[in-house]
């Protein structure tokens, strides 16, 4: 799915984290993803944000990437940017016994709105909006 990102109207400064998308670093990313929605008074979005970001990080180019969390009027927007131009493959129905192919299914089913967008100059951004009270 490729859409333009919704207009960003933040209610606080975004959280930006540069990291290598390696599984041994996912714990630190999960702690940061857990803390920010709580700081913003959106504890109900923590679980969905953690699952969504972990799945996205597991499927990006493992070189340097950027995780951005933003507190918006509509909810929390989480985005992962990397230098790869390969877009995620959208899976309509996940095979629970398959070795792969569940990541986009999980993201699509834990986010109220999500998409991928190419980044000018190369790379992509995979983002999701998790709405408060949804």
Describe the model.
This protein has 134 residues and is of the alpha+beta class. It has one domain: Heat Shock Protein 90 (2-Layer Sandwich), CATH 3.30.565.10. Helix content is 25%, strand content 27%. The protein contains three helices and five strands, in the order E-H-H-E-E-H-E-E. It has helices at residues 26-39, 46-57, 103-110; strands at 15-20, 64-71, 75-82, 113-118, 124-131. It has a five-stranded antiparallel β-sheet, covered by helices on one side. A hairpin with a 3-residue loop joins strand 2 and strand 3. The longest helix is centred in the first third of the chain and has 14 residues, at 26-39. The protein is globular. The two termini are 21 Å apart. Residues 6-10 have low confidence and may be disordered.
List strands and helices in order, with pairings:
Blueprint: E1 15-20, H1 26-39, H2 46-57, E2 64-71, E3 75-82, H3 103-110, E4 113-118, E5 124-131
Antiparallel strand pairs: 1-2, 2-3, 3-5, 4-5
Organism: Streptomyces silvisoli
Keywords: ATP-binding, Nucleotide-binding
InterPro entries: Anti-sigma-factor_SerPK, HATPase_C_sf
CATH hierarchy, class: Alpha Beta
How would you sum up the major sheet?
Answer: 5 strands, antiparallel
- Shape summary: globular
Instruction: Indicate the low-confidence ranges by residue numbers.
Output: 6-10
Mean pLDDT: 80
Radius of gyration: 14 Å
Helix content: 25-40%
Task: Report the CATH superfamily.
Answer: Histidine kinase-like ATPase, C-terminal domain
Secondary-structure element order, as H and E?
Answer: EHHEEHEE
Total domains: 1
Strand content: 25-35%
């Amino acid at each position: 799915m490729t859409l333009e990102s919704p207009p960003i109207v933040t209610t606080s400064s975004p959280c930006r984290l540069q990291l290598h998308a390696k599984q041994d670093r996912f714990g630190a990313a999960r702690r940061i993803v857990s803390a920010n929605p709580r700081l913003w008074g959106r504890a109900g979005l923590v679980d969905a944000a953690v699952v969504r970001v972990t799945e996205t990080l597991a499927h990006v180019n493992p070189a340097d990437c950027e995780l951005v969390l933003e507190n918006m009027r509509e909810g929390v927007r989480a985005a992962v940017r990397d230098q790869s131009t390969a877009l995620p493959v959208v899976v309509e129905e996940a095979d629970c016994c398959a070795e792969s192919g569940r990541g986009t299914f999980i993201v699509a089913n834990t986010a109220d709105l999500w998409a991928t967008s190419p980044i000018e100059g190369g790379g992509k951004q995979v983002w999701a909006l998790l709405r408060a009270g949804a």
